[in-house]
Design goal:
Number of strands: 17
Strand content: 35-45%
Distance between the termini: 5 Å
Order of helices and strands: EEHEEEHEEEHEEHHEEEHEEEE
Largest sheet: 17 strands, mixed
Mean pLDDT: 96
Structural class: alpha+beta
Low-confidence stretches: none
């Protein structure tokens, strides 16, 4: 069957500077094996499939696949898929889009020229055990003492986040992907005075998921959501800030975080770069 299709660049207002997601808009009737095969074929960090909702409060149901398997939640696919759904004529039941996915309902709001999702609760939090920390630190090529803090920030993906002394140090690391293995690791470091011309950029972030077939993800909503929950809880970040990601890959992703006191919203720009049909 011919299905409507879009490839959306997320977390950048400039096309091809963010993180692409492939979105099959009319996915009803596609079986699991075909979804997984198409995700392997696109070879993007995530490919998504829009389906009719199964819960009365949701506007649509989303399934999210990496080249290595299915995820219950991911951030840039959530925003890119909502963007594609709205462009395809989707109309939310209420004043915000509600997405059904593996972690339940995720709310998405429009912020000027950006979309933002409410960070889902962490399914695993707390400090990382010393054995795992040493293993990951060695795989990242870090010397003893370079990891300033580390926390589990899993919100679907099993993210572990480590903080380094600065955004500059984050950009310098050269991980051993084989040694990282199945670990899903985010690295974050602060910028004392922002970036030239962008004083609101408070952190540099990188994400490594070699076990899912994604050695380094260009810009990662779920990781930034987990980091934001951690940093806000510990008083390590302001209520509103911007994180840069993708710099090491030649991208210029910008993730906007806003804690309104009730929810932590994680958002960014989205642009459709490819629109058409696929045969599945």
């Amino acid at each position: 069957m011919t299905r409507r299709f879009a490839q959306v660049d997320v977390f950048s207002a400039v096309p091809v500077a963010g993180n692409p997601v492939a979105v099959v808009i009319d996915a009803e009737g596609i079986d699991d094996d075909a979804m997984a095969a198409f995700a392997r074929w696109t070879n993007l960090s995530e490919t998504t499939f829009l389906l009719p909702p199964r819960t009365p409060d949701a506007d649509y149901r989303l399934r999210i696949f990496t080249p290595g398997g299915e995820l219950p939640f991911a951030g840039h696919p959530t925003l890119g898929s909502a963007h594609a759904w709205l462009e395809a004529g989707g109309t939310p039941r209420g004043d915000r889009v509600v997405q059904e996915c593996g972690v339940g309902s995720v709310t998405i709001r429009a912020d000027d020229d950006r979309l933002a999702f409410a960070a889902p609760p962490l399914v695993r939090s707390g400090p990382v055990d010393e054995t795992t920390l040493q293993e990951v630190g060695a795989a990242l090529g870090l010397a003893d003492g370079e990891i300033r803090s580390a926390q589990w920030v899993a919100n679907g993906p099993a993210w572990m986040a480590v903080m380094l002394e600065s955004g500059r140090r984050v950009l310098e690391i050269d991980p051993d992907m084989v040694a990282l293995g199945m670990h899903e690791v985010g690295v974050v470091g602060p910028y004392a005075d922002g970036l030239p011309g962008e004083p609101e950029v408070a952190f540099e972030v990188r994400a490594f998921v070699p076990g899912q077939g994604v050695p380094e993800d260009p810009v990662t909503g779920s990781l930034n959501a987990g980091i934001a929950v951690w940093l806000r809880r510990e008083g390590l970040a302001p209520a509103s800030y911007v994180a840069a990601q993708g710099t090491a890959l030649g991208r210029s992703g910008r993730v906007h975080v806003d804690d309104d006191g009730t929810d932590i919203w994680v958002g960014g720009a989205a642009t459709t770069v490819i629109a058409g049909t696929v045969v599945l």
